[in-house]
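Question: I have long wanted to understand how a fold can be written as tokens. Here is the record:
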Amino acid sequence: MSSPAIHCLFLLLLITISSVAADDTLTVYQALESYGFPIGLLPVGVTGYELDPSSGKFKAYLDGTCSFKVDDYELKYKSTISGVITKNRIRNLKGISVKVLILWLNISEVIRDDDELEFSVGIASANFAVDNFEECPQCGCGFDCVNGERKGVKLSLNRFVSSLVD
């Protein structure tokens, strides 16, 4: 192999290695954005994540469970959230549930369609504007936080359970 060919091969190898290293430094929120999703699908405080780009399988880790209320919906995140992510679609989602009336239902799929997100709980789904998820909610107080507490309500946070105290 000639010297210029070796240099080209070496340069190509360096570019490949640096692009892989750059992907490894993405935060979970940047990874969400790279698939077309807003960062607010996950709460503040994700401690780590795993992502297999070839299959889309992922796991995101929180330091305990997380719950909060957004408008008329109560959401609960387990300490591990998993699923399969592709461009504009998350399927086989596990670890996130929503309270509808008196029932807790697992959110199984999220699809982005232009400026809307469709959340599916099996046979039913609901659509929300993407811009509602531009910020990450905080455990305990969601989007209504002032200094880590829900506006007008004292919070009692536990590493494993979040609850509101009157």
In short: The radius of gyration is 19 Å. The CA atoms of residues 83 and 92 lie 5 Å apart.
